[in-house]
Amino acid sequence: MESKTNNTWNIITTVAQEVNKVRNELCANCDSLQDIRYFKECGHAGCMKCLNDNVIGCLQCKKSLQVNDVYNYDDFSEIIANVEALDNINNYLKGHKPPKVITFFSPESTINKRDHKGETRLHKDCREGKLDKVETLLKTGVDVNTQDFAGWTALHEAVTAQKIDIVQLLLDYGAFVSVPGLNYDTPLHIAVQKQNIPLIKLLVEYGADLMAFDKDGKTPIDLCVRLDDLKAALCLTPRRPVIYKIYTIPLPKVFCMNVTEEDLHKLSTVSGLTTSTEHSLLNVGDVTYLIIGDNNKFNIKHIQAGILQGTCVVNRTWIDDMTKKSVVNPIEHIATLPQYALHKAFLNALDKLPKLFDGMRFYFCHTHTQSIDGCKYTIEDLKTLVNLGGGKILARRPHRLQEQDVYYPYHSSKNINLATVTYYLIYDEQRPNHTEHILTGTTYKSSKWLINCINNFCIID
């Protein structure tokens, strides 16, 4: 959060400087920004309209100057062309307050059947503009935020098809407005690329993130170069004071750690619940809840595997609620383990955001077991954790990079040195051996760094 805040204020400072530069160079007669020229004798600015109308040349100097007494400053004309948009961005970044977000929880629908692309009927009907069918599906309780295998939600499809009535309907039913899809494009990125101002305004009204980065490090604002009307739509559209988000809680697949026989019996009475206590969590995928019976006795690698899967790590009070209620707010029961970013990791999954290591590739320079913070990790343990976090394991050390290999991994801060690093060579901190030259977009990091990233659920510089 701190890095994003710093990034925002860096942008504010840059934009404000450009805006102030322009304001200091307005036409001295009429404050116009159009067709500016500079007076050779005094250096002040004036517009061609005033000069052609034979108005006094410079009110600041009280001297009569004609057209042949001025010159054009080409570099300044680029600033003039975008001054209104720069002002809008400046005002937005300084005065914008995020809307209040109210969350609801609902059980997962059982009607989200997928095809070979991971698409549901809702995806297809949104793409084809079938408003009535979309509304019928939403009324039956289908998950409005289901993603296909490319990460696209129904909102991506509706925005791409430019079906504003369906976009409005999806938003009213709790569609998440800033889910990154393929190449981390959010619906707002797509709307800007389509140059569809009504769609842009609608998405911004419902809280779309203007500072969301795609894989090339571009925000929706960055895609509006020299398109002032689009920038105005992005920066001047008022936001709703309250945004509703409906979180869908998946069907419970529970992994229990240090729970009593009594608690296991309670869980057995809950219908539709799948419970496991036998296997290593590193080998069990799609676990939705990890229950810790005793906070003083837990397997560290199980916690880390849960974090990377987006598992909700809860204490045993969750069991009591599950036996009494049909829908439980899991956030109320997240375990208290200050050394692990449990809330952050779970909300990342609920918000349909990429996994921690998405877009990152790892090559391990060592193959032996090592101890990190008192816990022993085999090379297979570390590779499994990387895979659970969405990263890719390389069999060979990277020797050259293609242009398409360099992009911004989703969770890398855009203000740190690792912003465009996609290849990580992992070494044992006790046996460092990384003196050779490495490629741009590649860096050496220790196994301990990898574990610290998992525990904090962020890419540490």
From TrEMBL:
Record organism: Ignelater luminosus
Transmembrane segments: none
Biological processes, Gene Ontology terms: protein K6-linked ubiquitination
InterPro entries per UniProt: Ankyrin_rpt, Ankyrin_rpt-contain_sf, BRCT_dom, BRCT_dom_sf
Domain BRCT: 352-461
Matching PANTHER family: ANKYRIN REPEAT DOMAIN-CONTAINING PROTEIN 39-RELATED, BRCA1-ASSOCIATED RING DOMAIN PROTEIN 1
Coiled coil spans: none
Protein name from the UniProt record: BRCT domain-containing protein
Repeat as UniProt keyword: yes
Gene3D superfamilies reported in the protein's UniProt record: Ankyrin repeat-containing domain, BRCT domain
Protein keywords: ANK repeat, Repeat
Entry annotated with the keyword Transferase: no
Molecular-function annotations in GO: ubiquitin-protein transferase activity
ANK repeat start and end residues: 117-149, 150-182, 183-215
UniProt superkingdom: Eukaryota
Pfam family, one: Ank_2
